[in-house]
Amino acid sequence: MTTSTPPCSTGVTAAPVFEDSSVNQVTVFGDWHQNTSFALQQLLYSQDDGSDTFFHVGDFGLWDLNSQFIKAVDHRLSRIDKQLWFIDGNHENFNIINSLPRDEYGRGFVSDHILHIPRSFSWIWGDLKFLGLGGAISVDKEFRQEGFDWFPEEQVTEDDVNKTVSAGHVDVLLTHDAPGLVWDSPVSGVPDYVLKESELTRDRIKQVIAHTEPSLNVHGHHHKSYASSFLGCKVVGLDCDRFAFTSQDTSVHLDRNRFVVPCDRSGFQKIVGN
Questions:
Q1: Taking the chain, what is the end-to-end CA distance rounded to the nearest angstrom?
Q2: Which of 6, 21, 122, 147 is deepest in the core (most CB within 10 A)?
Q3: How many angstroms separate the Cα of 210 from the Cα of each of 80, 107, 231?
């Protein structure tokens, strides 16, 4: 692992950039919603897939640092000697996220094996430059209590966008929300102002893609496994922690909740179609 510190035009030393050239592959997961059983199934299913590390694109399930979910996931990760990095979704406790101890790169430590990646954080794994941008709008926020199970920090702001695009060109953009509509029709019963806030978030992710020009964007939030494209960027959506009725269904659901990214240039070009 090496680090570099980019120059800062204000004269203030910028945070060093995290680099780990030894990472050959990363597995990216979609929403788990603090579902301990599903998370452990997924980690067991993915532990021998050749990935050096794991990444989660939000709604991971950070509600309590001492929850059974966090303890179980951390224990499994320690057993297989892997880390899981995650960006925030819209269903997380932002009071906890904002109080996490952070290292010189800005990574927040839930444990030695579970790390929160702040918005606009960029880093290098293998040959690729990654960029994280968490956040999305909760369409059910009118039924939630602010400061308990809903937090205004969930929203992707214009400031988030400005900081994120300052990363310059990246290869992989990891977001919670999508850069466009995922379902053919909006969720029924959602107030118009919430739908407009959701559309604004998607527009801001579009701005980030337009400025950083990634070849791949992987996201969660919409609980749908699909592949599309936007401005030449391959967009991959991941499904969530769905209950399976048979062992065959289990593997199908687990595959829809994960996407493997090779971190060498040639392997990466094969999955993005370049």
A1: 28
A2: 122
A3: 38, 26, 7
List of residues 6+ apart from 212 with CB closer than 8 A: 131, 164, 165, 167, 168, 169, 170, 173
Return the number of other C-beta atoms located less than 10 Å from residue 124's C-beta.
Answer: 21
* Order of strands, sheet of 216-219, starting from the edge strand that comes earlier in the sequence: 2-4, 17-20, 122-125, 128-133, 172-175, 216-219, 233-237, 226-230
Share of the chain above pLDDT 90, in %: 81
- Bridge partners of residue 150, in order along the sequence: 146
Q: For 226-266, write each residue's pLDDT tens digit.
A: 999 999 999 999 999 987 656 667 889 999 999 999 999 99
Cα torsion at 168, 50, 103, 58 (round to 10°)?
70
Tokens representing residue 143 in the block: 């039924």
* HSE of 180, CA atoms in CB hemisphere, 13 A: 14
Give yes or no for residue 57 having a pLDDT over 80: yes
- CA-nearest of 174, 140, 172, 136 to 153 is 136
Confidence of residue 30 (pLDDT cuts 50, 70, 90): very high
